[in-house]
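tool_call: predict_structure(chain=1)
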Amino acid sequence: MAQLSSAHSRASLPKQLANFTNTTAGLDLTLRLFHSLVLIGTQIDFDNVTVMRCSIAASQIGLVTKTASDLLLGPAAPSDKIDSVDEKEEDKASGHSQISKPVPSTASLLNRIIIDSLDLIIPGSLLGWIPVGDLGVALAMLASTILVWTTAWAKAQV
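tool_result:
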């Protein structure tokens, strides 16, 4: 009976997708996924019409991603860091101890290193530090998006 009730409480896939894309990280990852797939489409030898359409779509998705992140995230508030430092100092002075964060596992740290390394390929190739073509950048973007997707999906479903 416990399995039956847990199956009914789980949301449908469209509802889970709506939850995911309603978060900033979910929307950003979805746009990154589409952008990387379209960029890969521009590098694969299709007919000229398909390559042109993929190229136009890539530029439009890039513009939407930039605009959406500016609108959703807005300017960073520099006072946030100052407040958190002040709160920590007050806790130390008053004798309150902070609850320590759990130590991440080796696998999660390795996953984070791989994701960050893949994400660094994009600016590194634009600056000429990493000799990677457009297809390599698109594949790196696709791989990092897929690696981050599961964590962001799970957080959005809570």
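agent: The chain has one domain: 12-74+107-156. Proceeding to next step.
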